[in-house]
Design a protein that fits this description.
- The complex is a heterodimer of chains A (113) and B (115).
- By secondary structure, chain A is mainly β.
- Chain A has no helices and eleven strands.
- In chain A, the strands form two sheets. In chain A, strands 2, 4, 5, 6, 9, 10 and 11 form a seven-stranded mixed β-sheet that branches. Chain A has a four-stranded antiparallel β-sheet with strand order 1-3-8-7, with no helix packed on it.
- The mean pLDDT of chain A is 93.
- Chain B is an all-beta fold and 115 residues long.
- Chain B has no helices and twelve strands.
- Chain B has strands spanning 3-5, 10-14, 19-21, 24-26, 33-39, 46-52, 60-61, 64-69, 74-79, 88-95, 104-105, 109-114.
- Chain B is globular.
- The chains are: A mainly beta (113), B mainly beta (115).
- Chain A binds chain B through residues 31, 33, 35, 40-45, 48, 50, 58-59, 88, 90, 92, 97, 100-104, 106-107, 109, and chain B through 4, 33, 35, 43-45, 47, 50, 52, 91, 93, 95, 98, 100-108.
């Protein structure tokens, strides 16, 4: 019963460094999402994927790239980290768009100094 | 564009009392879904309850119920018999209708249950 697993759980980056956040789900869900959560802002969608090999931009995509080479994995990349990307990142998945069962990962707390 | 508004940054409730957390939404789509999530201090997002725009009855899940007033575009969460473990952030979210995949979240309400 792993559900959605995010790695790493915590990370500190220096400005300009790059990193990749991994999201893995074992529920065979078609749709996967990356959100960021900032204090007082709720969750905002960064990118999403509606199936293997597809990605699309969400509300706040700038500074991020994503890839979905395998159905179970959704990667979020930061090519050149900035302090404004300090946030908590959540991955989520659903079986299809109409399914109200969005499953969230436990989050990754990223600090860019 | 879709928008979710939660006007209560923080709420206090006495243990065993009921509490209502407000949520209003704005959408021109006739088909949409409304969600409530709980986020305890540990950080995970816990799904509580769902209401579809065409559902005739208000959704209920145990101590949680959703007071859905479509004409007013409100979807308030009612928690009955509050428990200390209910202390958390609560987020209202909306998924618009066909062809859209984005869950739009409100800014949240921090609920504190007082013993």
């Amino acid at each position: 019963n792993a559900g959605v697993t995010q790695t790493p759980k915590f990370r500190v980056l220096k400005t300009g460094q790059s990193m990749t956040l991994l999201c893995a789900q074992d529920m065979n869900h078609e749709y996967m999402y990356w959100y960021r959560q900032d204090p007082g802002m709720g969750l905002r969608l960064i990118h999403y994927s509606v199936g293997e090999g597809t990605t699309a931009k969400g509300e706040v995509p700038d500074g991020y790239n994503v890839s979905r080479l395998k159905k179970q994995n959704f990667l979020l990349g930061l090519e050149s980290a900035a302090p404004s990307q300090t946030s908590v990142y959540f991955c989520a998945s659903t079986e299809n768009w109409a399914d109200y069962g969005y499953t969230f990962g436990s989050g990754t707390r990223l600090t860019v100094v | 564009a879709q928008k979710i508004t939660q006007t209560q940054p923080g709420m206090f409730v006495q243990e065993k009392e009921a509490v209502t957390l407000d949520c209003t939404y704005d959408t021109s789509d006739p088909s949409y879904g409304l969600f409530w999530y709980k986020q305890p201090s540990s950080g995970e997002m816990i799904f509580l309850i769902y209401q579809g725009s065409y559902d005739q009855q208000n959704a209920t899940e145990g101590r949680y119920s959703l007071n859905f007033q479509k004409a007013r575009k409100s979807a308030n969460l009612v928690i009955s018999a509050s428990q200390l473990g209910d202390s958390a952030m609560y987020f209202c979210a909306m998924r618009p209708g066909a062809g859209s995949y984005q869950l739009t979240f409100g800014k949240g309400t921090k609920l504190s249950v007082i013993p």
